[in-house]
Specification:
With 291 residues, the protein is of the alpha/beta class. It has helices spanning 22-33, 98-102, 112-124, 141-150, 167-173, 189-196, 201-215, 229-243, 271-284; strands at 3-4, 63-70, 80-85, 108-109, 129-132, 151-152, 157-161, 179-184, 217-223, 248-251.
Amino acid sequence: MWQTHDELGASRPSARLDGPSLLGLKAEIARRMLRACVMCRHRCGVDRTAGAAGICAVAAETRVYFAGLLVTEEGEISPSFSVFPAGCNFSCAFCCVRDENADPEHGEPLTARAVDRWLAVAENRSARTISFIGGEPTVHLHAILDMLARLRSPLPIAWNSNFYFSQETARLLDGVVDFYVADCHYGSDQCALRLAGAPDHFATVTRNLRWAAERSRLILRLLVLPGHMDCCTRPILEWAAAHLNAPVHVMCNYVPPRQGAPGELGRALTAREIEEALACANDLGVNLIAP
């Protein structure tokens, strides 16, 4: 049976954690990071405990705009009870949850009572994992670690992220996460800066991918963007083939946003683009997850 605990420091059982207080300690460190936030590569340094917010627009409170069972995730983690906190450190013009990301006050506060209710659903519907998605879970590190410190659950934890997190965040995630799911779109720093407002993107993300692959199971998701084969899709696949042994899910399901997107992103993928992306992955010999 699922249990939550009010006292800080009660943790979920895990062979990877050195004692029952470690998750509580990690949660406390993450809360202290809020005073000069460096949770992601932006390193805004704002005091989120005083109501300030950096690029992600999230202050200290975490709100969740969706929590429920998803059966559309990769086979290793599906069905997954998935928690979507509102707010993101990227500003992708084509984001399908742009409204929720732009309004971190959208949704229900992440409270012990809400967690009790959600996890009762997870238990009844036979979830295999608990996933934290978003938005971007990195900017909610303090709240998620606190939730896990209060939770006793045997379910593996999946961290579905854009992998633009800081090394400080990586140290806090170490030993907590069972599956890393990396959502990658940009193989070019120029594209990442123009489309997501993310400087020094490729070096940051590839550093974190290497780190995650050494410590846990990793799934790399690559969303193929229209008009970005040579600048983004191919470089990511080439890097993955050279440096990762992780499975790669080439996602060819890009949907143009209803509100419009700049230039080439305002259209769907062509059949030729889909064929070229999959052929590139096969030619490079990446460990391809079947679509």
